[in-house]
Write a structure and sequence with these properties.
A two-stranded parallel ribbon has the order 1-2. It is mainly α. Keywords: Acyltransferase, Membrane, Transferase, Transmembrane, Transmembrane helix.
Length: 319
């Protein structure tokens, strides 16, 4: 297995940009679909990275803590920026949803990251039950999501309280299907080809279709995104530095773009400049804040684990 799935990094970066362009006066009319691709990619990558490290409860607990360390620093940054720009409740800094209509008035995208945390925890706790539980989750999620899309008219669900449970269906289906794709993935089939860049093209027509029909959403979520995830995992793009860079900054970009976009719109800043500003801000946050915050928290966790092992060893020796 390669150290990174660089084509999937490319997808993550482009998906984050699509979400911003959706929030920017619907420049990409169905950019919300990129969130479903995020969920699928997360499930795939987590399975490939951790499937051999969830054998007992100590490993499960370690995974959950490290996953929170991976996600929380930038979630906190996004919550803090949203609070500064739009006001709201200080509880948002602890990721507590307190909005009356939106889950997170301060920064609407936090709903998907909250569900990402829950999905990661569920993955760790249920992994030992094997494929049957995964198949059940995919089927239940698919039925619930398709029904919700039909009822509400599109798949832009989860960020409001009234569509919270349909949002749960989105992550249940997408994340679990990504895990399933990871389970059947064969590393020996990987090859490097420039055709990997072309895999970013099939979602474009669906993202750009105007509102009015549920079929583009259903086709993209149930067919196009699984297909490009499978192909993207098997085809590595050459000259991968730009793809890796896009993937590295995509999380920070996603979590900060909404409040910065709203702030820029108050001053009628053109979308292209907002996009450029978000890219720069995301790079700075990822490089100088997120890496250091995660390093500090990981060092603290490692120190606590060493102390625990030392005490356990002494106790066993005394016994």
């Amino acid at each position: 297995m390669p150290q990174r799935f660089v084509t999937l990094d490319l997808f993550r970066g482009l998906a984050a940009i699509a979400v911003l362009l959706f929030h920017a006066e619907r420049v990409v009319p169905r950019g919300y679909l990129a969130v479903d691709l995020f969920f699928m990619l997360s499930g795939f990558v987590l399975y490939r990275a951790y499937s051999d490290r969830l054998g007992d409860w100590n490993q499960i607990g370690d995974f959950i803590i490290r996953r929170i360390i991976r996600l929380y620093p930038l979630m906190l940054a996004g919550a803090a920026i949203g609070l500064l720009v739009k006001g709201g409740s200080w509880w948002v800094l602890l990721l507590v949803p307190t909005g009356t209509n939106l889950l997170y008035f301060e920064n609407v995208v936090l709903w998907s990251l909250l569900l990402e945390v829950f999905a990661s925890i569920a993955f760790a706790l249920l992994f030992r039950f094997g494929k049957p539980i995964g198949i059940a989750f995919v089927l239940i999620g698919a039925i619930a999501l398709a029904s919700s899309v039909q009822f509400h008219g599109d798949a832009n669900l989860g960020f409001r309280w009234e569509t919270f449970w349909p949002g749960v269906a989105r992550v249940m289906f997408g994340f679990t299907l990504g895990v399933g794709i990871g389970a059947f993935f064969k590393p020996e089939r990987i090859r490097t080809s420039g055709w990997g860049y072309a895999l970013a093209l099939p979602p474009v027509p669906f993202l750009m279709m105007p509102a009015g029909s549920i079929m583009p959403d259903l086709i993209a979520i149930f067919f196009v995104f699984p297909a490009i995830t499978i192909l993207g995992a098997n085809i590595q793009v050459p000259e991968a530095k730009s793809a890796i860079w896009l993937g590295s900054m995509s999380y920070a970009f996603y979590v900060i773009h909404f409040p910065l976009l709203r702030l820029a719109q108050q001053y009628q800043v053109a979308t292209i400049w907002v996009l450029a500003g978000c890219v720069i801000a995301a790079w700075l946050l990822e490089r100088f804040y997120d890496r250091n915050a995660r390093r500090f928290l990981t060092m603290g966790l490692d120190a606590l684990q060493r102390r625990y092992r030392t005490r356990s060893g002494l106790a066993n020796s005394a016994a």
